[in-house]
Write a structure and sequence with these properties.
Radius of gyration: 33 Å
Largest sheet: 5 strands, mixed
Number of strands: 12
Oligomer: single chain
Order of helices and strands: HEHHEEHHHHHEHHHEEEHEEEHEHEHHHH
Number of helices: 18
Helix content: 40-55%
Strand content: 5-15%
Shape: elongated
Distance between the termini: 86 Å
Length: 339
């Protein structure tokens, strides 16, 4: 067996001086020096200079070497040539037969799947993973998904979606490529709007057309990236969000946190609802907020949204730490303002 064949049989990419001596069958330091010199001249080895030498001044040998022999991927390349065109179309796999060797079982399963059935209906990532690999968590591996992305086999090609970490309660009668969705802080108003949309086919609230309504579940909607994940799940071209919550410090904080957590989304306050809440609250006994923190947040950006008379009423309610709940607009009132 020649030097190249012996080095190919080594399972690691580096080898020590003593391991080289045994692998190459050197009978002396001089013999080992000769064999290593030959391997170096053929480009089969390169010294790890940081390891230092063995101290032999006549025949100095480094204590560690990197093996540079070219592996034989002829079998892998012949198998790659027979794969489904969707797997080979980018040419990446042919240039990296080592990765085909690493993921051979997964690629062969994917190949059988593509030849048997091209994906059509979108399903969840774990559902697609089990369908292809008989393992529901195979596509959980980010490095494997990154490899598939390099092949062009993205989530859009394999028709799977990421299930949002927080599954909002929503009602969207018809999925459109361009939608306006209303997020409600509280359940009652969400249910009432949903009821009007479902039972009466009403879709205009305060003369603003809505394509659906979401119950944000209080602070849940403002969890980091939750709404962004939900938006990706929708898989539409554009979504505008309108937010509607209680008029108190917590309600405004949820809105501000929601915007901070999802900087790439179009999120705005549902102004006419707040104006109507303040109008209905005028002259009534409004309860104090449960928030007893002394520090008042910076709501100046919110205040500037509203006309001066509305702004003054909103600032006064917040400064006095009052809470005007969404429920001030009851279902009976909703019958008047939603068509």
């Amino acid at each position: 067996m020649g030097i190249e064949e012996r080095l190919k049989s080594w399972k690691r990419k580096t080898i020590s001086r003593n391991e080289l001596g045994k692998l190459l069958g050197a009978v002396s330091d001089e013999d080992l020096y000769r064999l290593i010199s030959s391997a170096l001249s053929e480009g089969l080895l390169s010294p790890v200079k940081a390891s230092g030498t063995d101290g032999n001044r006549v025949h100095p040998i480094f204590l560690k070497y990197r093996i540079k022999v070219q592996e034989d991927f002829s079998v892998e390349l012949s198998e790659i040539a027979l794969l489904h065109p969707w797997i080979t179309r980018t040419g990446y796999l042919s240039s990296r037969p080592d990765l085909y060797r690493k993921y051979r079982d997964q690629i062969q399963r994917l190949n059988s799947y593509l030849f048997g059935k091209e994906p059509g209906v979108y399903v969840s990532r774990r559902e697609r993973s089990f369908e292809i690999f008989d393992q529901d968590k195979e596509l959980d591996d980010e490095s494997f998904r990154g490899f598939l992305d390099r092949l062009g086999l993205t989530d859009r090609v394999l028709h799977y979606y990421e299930t949002p970490s927080y599954c909002f309660n929503d009602y969207i009668p018809e999925r459109k490529e361009d939608m306006t969705l209303l997020i409600c802080e509280n359940k009652d108003i969400w249910f009432n709007i949903r009821r009007r949309m479902y039972e009466d086919r009403a879709d205009a609230l305060f003369n603003i057309l809505l394509d659906g309504v979401i119950w944000g579940g209080g602070n849940n909607v403002s969890k980091a990236g939750a709404l962004s994940a939900y938006t990706r799940f929708l898989r539409v071209d554009r979504v505008r969000y309108l937010y509607w919550g209680d008029i108190d410090r917590e309600g405004l904080n949820i809105y501000l946190s929601l915007k901070r957590s999802n900087p790439g989304l179009d999120i705005r306050l549902f102004e006419p609802a707040y104006e109507e809440m303040l109008r209905l609250a005028a002259g009534r006994s409004i309860p104090d907020s449960d928030d007893h923190r002394e520090r008042v947040g910076d709501y100046s950006g919110i205040y500037q949204i509203f006309p001066e008379n509305v702004r003054e009423a909103l600032e006064k309610s917040i400064e006095e730490n009052k809470r005007i709940p969404q429920e001030i607009i009851s279902y009976e009132k909703l019958l008047e303002v939603m068509r």
